[in-house]
Amino acid sequence: MKKDKSNTGWKNKLHEIIYEADTPMGKWFDIILIVIILFSVLLIMLESVKNIDAEYHKTLLTLEWVVTIFFTIEYFARIICIKKPTKYIFSFYGIIDFLSTIPLYLSYILAGSQVLLAVRAFRLLRVFRILKLVQFLGEASQLKSALKASRAKITVFLFAVLILSVMLGTLMYIIEGDEAGFTSIPTSIYWTIVTLTTVGYGDIAPITPQGQLIATIIMLLGYGIIAVPTGIVTVEFGKRSKKASGDESVEHFVHVNTQACPTCAKEGHRDDATHCYNCGSLLNE
Amino acid sequence: MKKDKSNTGWKNKLHEIIYEADTPMGKWFDIILIVIILFSVLLIMLESVKNIDAEYHKTLLTLEWVVTIFFTIEYFARIICIKKPTKYIFSFYGIIDFLSTIPLYLSYILAGSQVLLAVRAFRLLRVFRILKLVQFLGEASQLKSALKASRAKITVFLFAVLILSVMLGTLMYIIEGDEAGFTSIPTSIYWTIVTLTTVGYGDIAPITPQGQLIATIIMLLGYGIIAVPTGIVTVEFGKRSKKASGDESVEHFVHVNTQACPTCAKEGHRDDATHCYNCGSLLNE
Amino acid sequence: MKKDKSNTGWKNKLHEIIYEADTPMGKWFDIILIVIILFSVLLIMLESVKNIDAEYHKTLLTLEWVVTIFFTIEYFARIICIKKPTKYIFSFYGIIDFLSTIPLYLSYILAGSQVLLAVRAFRLLRVFRILKLVQFLGEASQLKSALKASRAKITVFLFAVLILSVMLGTLMYIIEGDEAGFTSIPTSIYWTIVTLTTVGYGDIAPITPQGQLIATIIMLLGYGIIAVPTGIVTVEFGKRSKKASGDESVEHFVHVNTQACPTCAKEGHRDDATHCYNCGSLLNE
Amino acid sequence: MKKDKSNTGWKNKLHEIIYEADTPMGKWFDIILIVIILFSVLLIMLESVKNIDAEYHKTLLTLEWVVTIFFTIEYFARIICIKKPTKYIFSFYGIIDFLSTIPLYLSYILAGSQVLLAVRAFRLLRVFRILKLVQFLGEASQLKSALKASRAKITVFLFAVLILSVMLGTLMYIIEGDEAGFTSIPTSIYWTIVTLTTVGYGDIAPITPQGQLIATIIMLLGYGIIAVPTGIVTVEFGKRSKKASGDESVEHFVHVNTQACPTCAKEGHRDDATHCYNCGSLLNE
C-alpha cells in the first residue's frame, strides 16, 4: 500500500523511524532520543549549581550547543516527514519540543531567556513513550485506568478539602495573627494545607493555646481523611485485579501497536489497519 | 395545585428561583450566587494581604459594598418568599447568611467587627448545593455513606489516639522539660499529636537521648496506626462498590429532587409529592 | 446464692458498685470515677502551665487534695470489698491506682515526687472500661482482633524498618558528620526514623549533595513502605467485615456481662454463671 | 552418605554448626553470633557519641578487640569448613563479613579506616536468618512475595514520581530562586521530594505567593498519590490472604530446611535431598 514515489519514500522511512517504534531503527531512535533528553536535563541541573557553573562554564556551554543542534535537527525532521506539519507543531509535544530548542538561540537576543531551558524537563514525558516498548506498559495502563475510574470521587474529595482549608485557614488567621507568621488569609490557607497534608514545614507554627488546639484538630483530620483517597484507589485496584486474575495473560503482555499516522500523527491503530481511524489517510506498512 | 392569588404567585416564583434548582432560572440563580460568594471570599483574602490593602483599599471597599448590598437583597428575598421566615432565619444557613451580610454595616458602629467577615468563608458550603446539579452527587453521597458507616470505628480510634497522646505527652514533659520547648503538659500533648500524625513542625523537638528514643517510638506508632482509619474506610468503600456493581446506573445517575418546601424549607421530597413530608403544606408544582 | 452474713453483705454490695456495672449504682460509680479522673488529669495539666500555676496555686492545691482524698477512699474501698486484696493490689490497675494516689502525700517527705502525678494520666485507661457500657464495644473489639491478627506481620515489618534505620543512619553519620547535626550514630538513626516515617522535624537536615540524595531515597522508601502496615490491617478488617455481614447483629450489639468475681476480680463470666470460671468462688447474683 | 575420612568429619560438623541451624549446636551458634553482632553494632554507636568515647575510650577499644578477634576466628572457620571457599568469600555475606572484621587491623596502617566499622551494621542482615528458626518466617515470606508481585507497578509509580519531581523542582527553582533556599535545580528537586512525600523538613520553604501556590499543589498531590502504592500492596495482600484462608496451616507453619550445601553454600534444599540442587555434591545428613 506504500506510495512508490521516491520522495515520499524516504519521508515515510523517516516517519517510521521518528514517530514509530516497531522497526529496529525506530526503537534505536527512541532510545537515543531519551538518552539525549536525560543528558540535556542533567546539563541544566549542573548549570544551576553555582560553583560547578563557575568552573566548567565553557564545557557546559559547548555541550549545551551540541544538544541544541541535535534538538533543532530533530525538530525540523519531525516537521518534514509528517504530512500535516501543523498537527505536530501545535500539539502538546510539538510546543514542548519547540520551547526546549530555542532558549540558547534566544539568549543572544533576549537576556533571561535561559529560564526557558527549564521547559526541557517536560521533554522527560517522552520517557513514557519508551515504556510502550517494555512490559511495564500493562502495569502502567492498569494504574492509569484505576486512577481514571477514581477521578470523580477524588475530585469531590479534593473539593471538600479545599473548602475546608479556606474555612480553617481564615479561622487561624483571626486567632493567631501576625506574630506567629499568619500574616494574611492566603498564607493561613497555605499553612492549613501544609498541616492537613501532614507535610508540616514548621516555618509557620501556632503559638497561642487556641491556635494549637485548632492545629491539633486539623492534624487529626488530615491524619484521618488520608484514608479517603487511599480507600477509593484501593477498591479500584481490587476490581481490576479480580477481573485480570481470570485472564492473567491479558494483564501483563498487552500487545502494543506503536504505529503513528504519517498525516496527523494519531496513535493507537489496530494491527490490521491500513487507514488512519482519525483522518483516513494511508498508514505505512 | 398552585394558589392563584397574584401575591402568593410571585412569592412562589421567587421561592422556586431562590430555594430550588429544577427551573432554568433557579439553576442560574444558584450559579450566580456561588460566583459572588467565591468573589466575596477572594475579596476578604486580598484585604488581608497588607500591601494589596494599602494600595487598593478604596477599590476593595467599593467592591465590598457591592457584595454586601447583593447579600442584603438576597437575605431579605429569602425571608420574604418563605412562608415561615423563622425556619430560615434560625437555620444553620440562615445564621451564616446573616453573619456574612452584617460586618460592613457593623464596622461603622463597632471597631474590630471586620473579623466577622471571615464567617463568609462558611458560605462556601453552599457550593455543595451546586453539586446537586451535577453528576458528582452520586460520588459524593457514596463517600458520605461510607464515612458514616465508619464513624463508630473511627471514633473509637480517635479516642484511643487522644488518650495515648495525653499519656505520652505527659511522659515527654517529665523527660524533656523547658529547654527543649516542652514548657507545659498541654504543649507536650500538642507536640505528641504533631509527631504522631507525622506532621512534625520541628518548632519543638526532643534533645535528650531518652526523649529522642520515646519520640522514635511515637513516630513508628503514628506511622503504623495510620493503617487503622485507612483500613476501616477502604473496607467500607469496598462494600459499597460491590453492591453498586450489580446495579451500576443507581450509583452514578442518582435522580435528585431539588424542590424545597415553601413553608419550612425542607428538601428531599418525592417527585410525585404534593405536600411537604415535614409540615404538610402544599408544594409548588 | 448470696452468703447471708451481714458483714459480707455490705462488702458484696460495695463490690457490685465498685467493680461491676450492671446495677444502676455501679454504672453511676463508673461514670463519676471517670469524671473525677478526667478532672484530675486536667488539674495536672493546668499546674504544669507556669503562669496559671503562679496565679491560682492555692486553688489548684486545694482541688488536688480533694481528688487525692477521693482516690484514697476509693483505693481502700477496692481493697476492703475484694476477698483476695493482693490480687487487686498487684494487678496493673492496682499499681496505677496506688501511684496516682500517693504523690501529694509523698511531696511532704520527698522533693520532686510531684513528677509521679503524671502517672495519673494512665488512669485514663479506665475510660476503656466505660466503653463496655456503650455500643462502641463491638467496634473496639473488632479493631482489637484485627490488630491482633496482624501482629506477627507488623512485628516483622517493624523489625525490618529498624534494621534498615540502623544501616541508613550509620551511612548518613559517615556522609554528613557534625556540621549538619549528625553528631553521633544514635542521633543519625533518630534522624533516619524521623525521615522514614515522614515526620520530618527539620532540626537536623542533610547539607551535602550525597546526603541529600540518600535522604531522598529514605523519603521515597518511607513514602512507599507505609503501604505495608496499611495493606496488612486493611485485609484483616476486610476479613472481619465479611464474616460479620452474614450476622450483622452480632457485630454491633455485643452483649456484655460486667460482673467481676468478688474473690479474684476476673471478668468475662457467662450470664448464667454462679461460680467464677477462674477461682471457683461464688459470684454475686 | 557421609564421607568417613576423619578430616572431612570435623569439617562437616563445623559446617553443620556454622552454616546450618537444624542441630542444637547450629541453633546456638546462630543465636550467639547474632548477640555478638548486636553488641558490636552497639559498640560502634557508643564510640560515635563524643562524651562517651572520651570517658570510656579504653574499655570500648578492648571490647572492640574482643569482637574483632571473634569475627576473625568466625571468618576463617567459615572459609575452612566449606569445600569451595571462593563461593563464600565473594558472596554478599562473605564481603560484608570481611569488611566488618578488618577495620581495627587497618586502623594501625591507615588513618580514617575506622569509617569501615559502619559496614558492620550490615551484618545485622544475618538477623533475618535467625527468623528462619521462628514462626515469623511464614509472615515474612508472605510479605516478601506480596512486595515482589507489586514490584513492576511500584517501579512505574516511582518512575512517574521522579519525573514529576524533576519537572516541579525545576519550576520551583525558576519561581523562588536563591533567597528562599532554592539555590540550584538539584536542591529544588530535593525540596520537591521532601514536600511530595509529606516529610516537610522546613529547612527550605517557599516565600513568594506563586511558590506557595505550587507548593500547595505538590502537597495535595503527594497526599493523594500515596494512595497508589498503598492500593497496589493492599490488593496483593488481599489475594495472598484469600488463597491462604483455604489452607490456613500452610501459611503459618512453613517447614524450613536450613541445610546449606558444604561445597557451594546454597540453601533451600528439599528435606529428602541427598545432593545439592546447584552443584550436585553430597549434602551432610
From TrEMBL, chains A, B, C, D:
- A matching Pfam family: Ion_trans
Going by the UniProt record, its keywords in alphabetical order are: Ion channel, Ion transport, Membrane, Potassium, Potassium channel, Potassium transport, Transmembrane, Transmembrane helix, Transport, Voltage-gated channel
Q: Which SUPFAM superfamilies match?
A: Voltage-gated potassium channels
- According to the entry, every stretch annotated as the Ion transport domain falls at 27-244
Q: Which domain of life is it from?
A: Bacteria
Q: Where in the cell is it found?
A: Membrane
Q: Specify whether Ion transport is a keyword of the entry.
A: yes
Stretches that traverse the bilayer: 28-49, 61-80, 92-119, 154-175, 213-235
The parts of the chain that form a coiled coil are: none
Q: Topology versus the membrane, per the UniProt entry?
A: Multi-pass membrane protein
Name of this protein: Ion transporter
Lineage of the species this protein comes from: Bacteria, Pseudomonadati, Bacteroidota, Flavobacteriia, Flavobacteriales
